[in-house]
Amino acid sequence: MKTLLISSLLILNISFINAQSTIYGLQLDTVSNINYFVSIDPDDATITQLDSISGVDVVANGTSTVNESSEFYIFTANDNQTNPVTRIYTIDINNGATLANPTLSASVVELNYDNIADEYYALEFEDTTTYSGLYYVNDFGDTIYPGSNPLSPVSYEYHLVSINTSTGIATRINTISGVNGHYLDNSSFNPTSKEYVFIAGDDVIYTIDANTGSIVSNPSLSTTIRELQLNVKTGIFYAISYNSITNTNDLVTVNTTTGVVTLIDSIQGLSSYMSGTSTLDTLNNRYCIVDDNDNLIHIDLSTANVTSNPQLSSVINNLCINVVNGGERIINVIKDEAQAGDLNAESNIVESGNGSYSNNEDLRSYVGEPFQAYPNPTKNQLTISITEAPTVLRVFNLNGILIETRTLNNKLNKIDVSNFQNGLYFFTLSDSTKTETKKINIQ
Questions:
Q1: CATH number of the domain encompassing residue 82
Q2: Has residue 163 got a pLDDT over 90?
Q3: Is residue 90 one of the residues assigned to a domain?
Q4: In terms of DSSP bridges, do strands 435-442 and 423-430 run parallel, antiparallel, or are they unpaired?
């Protein structure tokens, strides 16, 4: 944690999570059968237990994501009650505390987070098979029908859903027709285009418009791939592909429009890996995955060379790395109470994996004026111009409390501030590559 003094008037507490690209995951103590939320240093694979998660029984791969803005780790799991239900857990990544764990209203897999619109998406799978007798569907998508047989071929219907992590309510956006099963931990979300991408069981890669749930494209893949990951900085999808001829695991890129899989190179030394243990470190340009010997393998995205392979001291699953928009993020803002009345000069702060910039000139040279806000001061209306849409606007008061969030879809936006109390506010804008904050005086 670093504290910067800005012109002796404004104090910013900025957590440089990105600079060290912390990895988070779940650790099961097989003796006590207790799950722990842990952080992992990617460079030496040191595991730090942050807190235990009570009540968790079965955790399925492919059901975890990280909310970079709020610093939450989200995952789904069955609880350990007599009649188990599936819950969605929200964990504070700073201390491992469980903030919420409501029951999910539907069976979902492939949880993903839209870090621009601040929304969660997943696939709901609905069993449409006709059975004789009782049955149930477990979290792995297996249909269990004790003492009976299906009267029709086993089939599922898939729906794109948005999820409220506070209530557990999954809201259907649309039905995705033609989906033939799914592979666990083979999905991603492109926040720039607002598209949900996943791989079906017949090696078809689906791109879904998250607004409408309609299919944008669904080509067949040119070869089977696993562990799909998106580089949000470049828009390139990466994955692992097994080559049966050379008996190697290869690092590949994936064209989601055509289905063409392009070889980068074979990953030397990666003979096998644990499903659901991959993540992408955009800050350090590397693909991370855990092999069957509990080594955390770091793979260079450009060459597929293994740059390091430290060994984990324990089995970890559902890895998620906390890298935000390539290393730029405002964490929180705290005023200097003693001199709050003197905060009149405009100040912009950007957090970067390469450092932090604390004055307007440094910022303009670094981010190229990604947005403007005028007039300042203002009374009833503020005009915000942006260079990339959609962009998420978050407004904080001087105490660092979030008071409004909205998505800007136009390059020029009129914001009504007539209901705001007089005073200083921090307007934070985040697009797919950067975050900048302006201090606005509302009179």
A1: 2.130.10.10
A2: yes
A3: yes
A4: antiparallel
How far apart (Å, rounded) are the C-alpha atoms in residues 266 and 167?
Answer: 44
For 17-54, write each residue's pLDDT tens digit.
334 577 888 887 777 778 888 888 878 888 888 898 88
Amino acid at 70: S
**Does position 8 have pLDDT exceeding 60, yes or no?**
no
Task: Tell me the two tokens of residue 52.
Answer: 């235990």
Please check whether residues 139 and 281 belong to one and the same domain: yes
- pTM (two decimals): 0.65
- Given a contact cutoff of 8 angstroms between Cβ atoms, the answer to whether 204 and 218 are in contact is yes
Q: Which CATH number fits the domain that encloses residue 421?
A: 2.60.40.3080
CB-based contact 60:122 (threshold 8 Å): no
- Count other Cβ atoms within 10 Å, centred on residue 234: 14
Tracing tokens 């099961």 back to the chain, one arrives at: 28
Phi/psi for 234 (5° steps) reads: -110, -15
Looking at the structure of the chain, the number of domains it has is 2
Integer CA distances (angstroms), 222 to 142, 176, 205, 211, 241, in order: 27, 22, 10, 28, 11
Please give the Cα distance from 319 to 227 (Å, whole number): 11
pLDDT at 439: 79
Domain with 163 in it: 22-321
Q: How far apart are CA 271 and CA 291, in angstroms?
A: 8
d(CA 316, CA 313): 9
The distance between the two most distant Cα atoms of the chain, rounded to a whole number of Å, is 75
Of 170, 56, 127, 115, whose CA–CA distance to 407 is shortest? 115
Q: Count Cβ atoms below 10 Å from residue 146 Cβ, excluding itself.
A: 8
CA-wise closest residue to 281 among 37, 69, 60, 24: 24
Digit-coded pLDDT (tens) for 213-229:
999 999 999 999 988 99
Residue 1 falls within a domain, yes or no?
Answer: no
DSSP state letters, 246-265: TTEEEEEEE-TTT--EEEEE
Reduced to 3 states (helix: H, G, I; strand: E, B; else coil), residue 30 is coil
CA 204 to chain centre: 23
Q: Write down the H helix ranges in 276-335.
A: none
Residue 156 makes CB contacts below 8 A (sequence gap 6+) with 125, 126, 127, 128, 129, 141, 179, 181
- CA distance readout (Å), 168 to 89, 91, 100, 279: 9, 14, 9, 25
